[in-house]
Amino acid sequence: MSDNIYSNRQQSILLIASLLVLAGLILFGLGSYITGFLGAGILFVVFRPWFKALVHQRGWNRYIVSIGLLVFALVVIILPFTGLILMIVNRITYYAQDTSQIMAVLHSIERKTGYTFTNEQNVRSLLQQSVAWLSQRLPSLASSLLHFVVIIGLMLFTLYFMYTQEGTFLKGLRRYLPFRDGTIEELGESLKNIVNTNVLGQALISLVQALLTGLTLWIFQVPDALFWGTLSFFLAFVPVLGTPLVWAPAAILKLTQGATTQGVGILLVGLIVIMNIDNLLRIVLARRIGDIHPLVTLAGVVLGVNIFGILGLVLGPLLLSYFIVLIKVFERENRLHDILKAKSSELPS
Fold first, then answer.
1. Is the CB of residue 99 less than 8 Å from the CB of residue 127?
2. Alpha helix locations (H) across the chain?
3. Is pTM, for the whole model, over 0.70?
4. What is the secondary structure of 113-140 as a DSSP string?
5. pLDDT tens-digit readout, 233-277
6. At what angle do helices 260-268 and 244-256 cross, to 10 degrees?
């Protein structure tokens, strides 16, 4: 007879509670570095069709393919994305320190409207607050080089082992996830569709809109068109509000400067071309890789940016969408359990 003071049920409950506490401590200890593991999971799903085609179908060496995918991700995705962030940080800092250009625009609007609504001190204070907020979400390499290197290292290191030990990794998921095999397959397919929609689909839409916005501003001779086009790439992840936050102020700038033709031209291109190309691409991509409600995307962006910084533009909608999928799975599992329980009660004893 055991001398343990706990019953079997109490032992199970305490074991689960201990696991949850330890998991919470691990997540808390990882802090912002958790984005490295989440990024590895996203890249694993994005590049897995290439991995399967090269390794499983053509029989290439999985280690060489894994290293090749890591180099591709670093050179084509990570470094350019980092360069864009650094560019935005530097330009925002510049505009915050030199408010003369912004004040000139505001004074022009005041002269046109005949109403004084700001002064330089208020503008400078507002810009400094904006830079302080953005600096927490757009970290520069100069201030957080070690943090950046650790996150990228964790992401690439994790991604390498997810590919080289693909069978063990997927087997572990099937073993420890609390779902039936059919449900796990459905979750995997849902995850692939959500990643494709939020990462590949939204990135493509944002890139097209950014190119159109930057080209439009350059044609109509808006200063620093490259920077504003780059900024529109990140803003395009925000539904509805996205690129209008760039080209609408640019049009107002031209109108206040007396360049009516250029201002009207920017407005027409923005309303007719840039906004409609967004809707058109979303319809086309929704047929191919799935669709996500704009409200989910908007709420996910707000949630993600506060938690993960600039990466929250992708991770926020991704997590929120997958949360909704898990709720649907939980609902269906409970319904199936009730049906099976009802059928078993109807059987003769």
1. yes
2. 8-30, 34-51, 62-72, 79-97, 100-113, 120-137, 145-164, 166-176, 181-195, 202-219, 225-235, 244-256, 260-268, 275-289, 294-308, 312-346
3. no
4. HT-----HHHHHHHHHHHHHHHHHHS--
5. 877 877 667 788 888 888 887 887 777 888 888 888 888 888 888
6. 160
